[in-house]
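Hello,

Our lab assistant flagged a job as stuck in the queue for most of the afternoon. It eventually completed. Since we weren't sure the result was trustworthy after the delay, we are filing this so someone can double-check. Below is the sequence as submitted and the structure that was eventually returned. Let us know if re-running is recommended.
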Amino acid sequence: MSENLDTKALLRLMAWLSPAFPIGGFAYSGGLERAVQDGLVKDATGLKGWLSSLLRHGSLWNDAVLFSEAWRRFENEAALKETAELGLALAGSAERHTETLSLGKAFVAAAAAWPHPVLDRLPPAVPLPVAVGAVAAAHGVAVASALAAYLHAAVSQSVSAGIRLGVLGQADGVAVLAGMEALIIEITERASRITLDELGGAAVQAEIASLRHETQHSRLFRS
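-- returned structure --
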């Protein structure tokens, strides 16, 4: 890419993955709220461990694999449909399914501000990582840059949720983000090179927390 295209790609990533982008990500915690309720996450150290597990073995790992597949096959409508269906099938709870589907559909709607045929190739029911991966590829954003930004945004959202849940303060939240950089880079490098054969997870506590959140009476978040 030329320098101008690099700058354009950066600006689009900043817009698409900004907390201000109108997809409603602030309303979801991915089961973190229940993990806090159950005492599984009590402080900044616990939140960092929780997020590390999701990146290595849980939903964020699967998101990274799905993102990369959608990025590689953004021109193939049938492949995007299959990847989207697989992503939704991997949702371990009703709330997780609602979260990734709602955010994916909202992302596609908002991304229409940057018109591109890829938006018509995406299926109506599309999970967030598939939507962002395909749109990023269509606009010429390198997979490593796009995926790193996606994972950083997901971690940032969880840190923000942790702050709202009273697990940590803003200074500790920034420290958690800084401490996650190396792992985000590691996961980005791995997921950028592999196929759907590497899908799968072992973050059992996170899946249970997501399921238990469905019956939680008092809540701040939808998941």
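-- support follow-up --
The delay was a queue issue, not a problem with the job. The result is valid. The two ends are 39 Å apart (CA to CA). The first helix runs from residue 3 to 16.
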